[in-house]
Amino acid sequence: MSTLAVARKDFQDAIRSRVLLGLTGLFVLFVAGASYFFARIQPAPGGGDPTALVLIFSLLTPAGLLVPIIGLALGYKAVAGERESGRIKLLLSLPHSRLDVVLGKTLGRTSVLVVPILVGFAVGAAVIFWQSSRFTPVNYLVFAFVTVLLGLAYIAIGVAISSATTSTFRALIGGISLLVVLEFLWQQVLLAVVYLVNGLSLPQQPPGDWYYFLQSLPPGSAYSSAARSLLPQNPTTLAVTGQTPDAFYLQDWFGFVILAAWIVVPLALGYLRFEGTDL
């Protein structure tokens, strides 16, 4: 119950500071605006009104960039901010353990992100229903669910970094650096690894399964894979010819495993660091 008490207090603080209201407005504008925009520029295959599935796949990339930024912004002050202000000692003087603080902050800030996502996606659903005569609620709910998981992963990363540092500035720099590497520079990092492993040259043959596994490791890539595993095939793309990878860790459903790892592992490491630090 201590974990839930910390989460409840965190959520109430977000309401009082109007963070929840601001994020809700942002998601409403983002999802509704993006849905309308893509409906105008991305007609259905063969012409006519776009299907809801076409619009959902169009939203995957922008959502995969906005949600991580907001998740880290919500998470990086979670524990480090309490330590800087001195409130952490008051918090731990109550019947809360350090584990309660880490988990409670994660749950509270996830709630702050989930509400705007659901409200924004509900408004977006109305826009998509208006734009498309072929709206499938199940596919849209799947998209919202996977997006929430991506947000939870980045909140967990942000809270973990915040738990491992004593400064909100360091937590912010660490979060931004990790986001840039994982979501913007990961392909370049992998090419550099291949270049080094192959003796300072690029291989003539395609890399092995290990390379494609590393490609799928960033949360954004896992998010796309997880969404593809539950949604029908993207109607705007042609089916890929060739063999489907045999390795289980290269299947789209394994994106859920990777997202779960991004939630659990950083939190565990951040908690262990927080637990072993003198306040």
TrEMBL record:
- Organism superkingdom: Archaea
One Gene Ontology cellular component annotation held by this UniProt entry: plasma membrane
What are the TM regions of this chain, as residue ranges? 20-39, 51-79, 112-132, 138-160, 172-197, 253-272
Q: What's a Pfam family this protein contains? A: ABC2_membrane_2
Q: Mind listing the UniProt keywords for this protein, alphabetically? A: Membrane, Transmembrane, Transmembrane helix
Q: State any single GO MF term.
A: ABC-type transporter activity
* PANTHER family, per the entry: ABC TRANSPORTER PERMEASE, ABC TRANSPORTER PERMEASE PROTEIN NOSY-RELATED
| The protein, known as | ABC-2 type transporter
* Organism per entry: Halococcus morrhuae DSM 1307
